[in-house]
Design goal:
This protein is an alpha/beta fold. The protein contains eight helices and nine strands. The strands form two sheets. Strands 3-2-1-4-6-5-7 form a seven-stranded mixed β-sheet, sandwiched between helices. The chain has a two-stranded parallel sheet with strand order 8-9. The chain is globular, with a radius of gyration of 16 Å. The chain starts with 5 loop residues before the first strand and ends with a strand. The chain binds guanosine-5'-triphosphate (GTP) and phosphoenolpyruvate.
């Protein structure tokens, strides 16, 4: 099964500005509630993953801090000036032992056992090598891992799959559809609903069909 020694970093932008491409996706649902629900389901799945010792949320948002702490995450503020890669780098520097995984907070269908399989594959790879998992389209990144003592060196952003490969990280090849299913635009939410949404997002998305709530 692999050791329970991973720290998973989950960055959550201030909810009023996060996930702007999803604004207005669900009628009558405040945007911040949707952005938070995506993060809650991501964090709940990571917490339920057998390999994960700790989930460290990085955020400057007070509401996200309260809600994600309630799910058992530790929380630390963004570095001054924020920025996704700067925030992941700060998070990685706070981890004193064990391997580190950087996970985006927009994975509402994520199943703990798929994350477990990806972390096991990362741990079984060649020593000292950073690994990553691309998103469903194959251009972005949902997960970047670094063994203990190896800096994360995150290259998230546009075309991050290429950027991570060029930086020496090696792509992991498993199927893991719920891990790869990030939600950036409205059609992604419908695709995630087909896989089965976590309970926080499902509660907001009842009119998307078919919606299945998944209890982690
Ligand atoms: N803490 C923190 N998280 C960030 C920051 N920028 C992006 N994120 C998070 O990183 C993840 C992936 O980022 P994107 O999908 O590009 O999210 P986004 O910038 O909120 O979305 P768009 O506005 O639609 O581009 C999401 O979970 C964001 O909440 C940042 O500066 N600080
Ligand atoms: C931050 C990223 O992108 P997205 O906008 O797909 O979450 C990424 O894929 O590196």
């Amino acid at each position: 099964m692999g050791e329970q020694n991973w720290t998973v970093l989950v960055p959550v932008k201030r909810l009023d500005v996060a996930k702007s491409r999803l604004r207005g996706t669900l009628d009558d649902v405040p945007h911040q509630a949707l952005a938070l629900a995506l993060a809650q389901d991501t964090v709940a799945a990571a917490r339920a993953c057998p390999q994960v010792a700790a989930v460290l949320v990085l955020t400057d948002d007070a509401e996200a801090t309260e809600a994600l702490s309630a799910l058992g995450a530790q929380v630390h503020a963004d570095p001054p000036g924020g920025g996704l890669n700067e925030t992941f780098t700060l998070g990685g520097s706070l981890v004193t032992d064990g391997p580190v995984a950087a996970l985006t907070a927009d994975l509402p269908a994520l199943r703990p056992l798929e994350l477990a399989a990806a972390l096991r594959a990362a741990a079984d790879g060649p020593a000292g090598v950073r690994r990553f998992v691309t998103d469903t389209p194959g251009t972005g990144t949902v997960l970047l891992t670094a063994p203990e003592g190896v800096p994360l060196e995150p290259r998230f952003g546009e075309d991050s799959a290429t950027a991570h490969a060029e930086s020496g990280a090696v792509a992991l090849a498993g199927p893991w559809p719920t891990l790869r299913r990030d939600v950036d635009v409205p059609a992604d939410l419908a695709a995630a609903a087909v896989l089965g949404l976590g309970r926080h997002t499902a509660a907001l998305a009842r009119r998307l069909a078919p919606v299945r709530a998944v209890d982690h």
